[in-house]
Every structure is written in structure tokens, then in C-alpha cells.
Specification:
12% helix, 2 helices, 223 residues, five-stranded mixed beta sheet, mainly beta, seven-stranded antiparallel beta sheet
């Protein structure tokens, strides 16, 4: 179906994915998200979508966490905080490739695997034609992929990874010369254009703007 991730902004937790992940889906089927081997159901959840940027978010309240039986969650922090970390010119997207994941309801079995793909060349203005506005791009030639051991690799298809996060890798070198690492969200992965060899993502700025509207609305509603 697609990938997703959790983020927190203004003290509110959100499920984030790409809007096109839900297009054409049979709403009579059960859809869920795996959290620490527990399933949180998505049916009936209020998603806010922006087709212009191909983004979808769902605010998560305490009742949803209780129903899912989730008592801990790792979420991407999206509050605008200053940092002393610097970019190393590397980006990575993480998702659930369709070819590596499966669900067998009859046997009540799941096969769940994440896969990460890194990029070294960010494109502020990609050339591939898109269905969404103002994408950020990354150069990706499948024929030149190498693994962490610097050997040629055959990565899985990007099918199923839409909606996953794209992180920028940051580094901070302390006074003793030791490096510390962290990730900053660059965008939401949308897809790969084979001919142009470009992987495209929706930018993080419109994602934050969508979240801010929800946070402001919920804040006014609670007054």
C-alpha cells in the first residue's frame, strides 16, 4: 500500500504519509500501521490531505494510542529549533518496499522489512515532471548503487515506499574530535522517475504548515 512515519510538532503527534497512498483504496478493507509489532487501525481516522503537495496527515489522540495498545512511540521532532549540527551532504529515505513485505490474513502472519536508500546529490529543481508542487529531488541511478561494503547492489523497487521519510544526515564534532550524528526531516518520499534518474519528495515546509493549522485549530477548540 505505502509507507508512513510518525512526527510530533507543537506537542501533537501525527501520522504522516503521501496523499496518493489512499487514492483508489477500497474503504471496506481494514488498513493499519505496525507499531512495535502492534497494529493501529486507520479506518475511520480523520486524515487531512493536500493534493497540491501530495501530503496526508492524521492527528493522533490518546484514545487512538490506547486502542492500539501503544505505550511508547518514536516520532520525528518537527519543532523549529536551532542546532549546531551541520549537513554532511547525505540523505536517506526509509520505507517498506512492496517486494520485501507481505501480509497473510488467513494465517495471521506478517513479513515486515524496512529498507533504506541513501542519496548524495540533492536537486533543488528536479527536471522530472510531477503531479505535485515544488518537489525536492535526489539523483538516483539504480545501475550505480553500492551497499555499505562498497559493493554493487540491486536495491528493491521503490514501490510501497511512498509516504516514507527522507532524512538529511547531520554531524557535530566535539572538542575531542568525536562525531555525533542526528537526522533532520527533509521531506516525504513520493516516487522515483526512472528516465530522469531522480527520486522526488514533498518538502517539509508545507508539511509543517498543515500541522500548524491542526495544532492551532485544536488549541482554539480546547479554549
Amino acid at each position: 500500500m505505502g509507507s508512513s512515519f510518525f512526527a510530533v510538532r507543537g506537542g501533537m503527534y501525527f501520522l504522516v504519509t503521501a496523499a496518493h497512498v489512499f487514492q483508489g483504496r477500497d474503504l471496506r478493507r481494514a488498513y493499519g500501521v505496525n507499531i512495535n509489532r502492534k497494529w493501529g487501525m486507520l479506518n475511520g481516522m480523520p486524515f487531512i490531505t493536500c493534493l497540491v503537495n501530495d501530503l496526508a496527515i492524521a492527528p493522533l489522540n490518546e484514545a487512538w494510542f490506547r486502542r492500539a495498545g501503544v505505550d511508547r512511540l518514536k516520532a520525528v521532532p518537527l519543532d523549529d529549533l536551532e542546532t549546531e549540527y551541520s549537513s554532511i551532504g547525505r540523505w536517506v529515505t526509509v520505507g517498506y518496499p512492496k517486494s520485501k513485505n507481505g501480509l497473510n490474513p488467513r494465517l495471521n502472519q506478517t513479513d515486515i522489512h524496512t529498507h533504506g536508500t541513501s542519496f548524495t546529490d540533492r536537486l533543488e529543481k528536479p527536471t522530472a515532471k510531477t503531479h505535485f508542487a515544488n518537489p525536492v529531488g535526489f539523483r538516483f541511478d539504480k545501475n550505480k548503487v553500492i551497499d555499505t561494503k562498497m559493493k554493487s547492489a540491486n536495491p528493491p523497487s521503490f514501490s510501497g515506499t511512498s509516504g516514507g521519510p527522507v532524512y538529511e544526515i547531520l554531524e557535530l564534532v566535539d572538542f575531542d574530535g568525536f562525531s555525533r550524528w542526528k537526522c533532520r526531516l527533509e521531506g516525504v518520499f513520493i516516487g522515483w522517475h526512472k528516465r530522469e534518474k531522480e527520486a522526488l519528495a514533498a518538502r517539509v515546509q508545507p508539511l509543517k504548515a498543515m500541522m500548524d493549522e491542526v495544532v492551532d485549530y485544536m488549541g482554539k477548540k480546547s479554549v
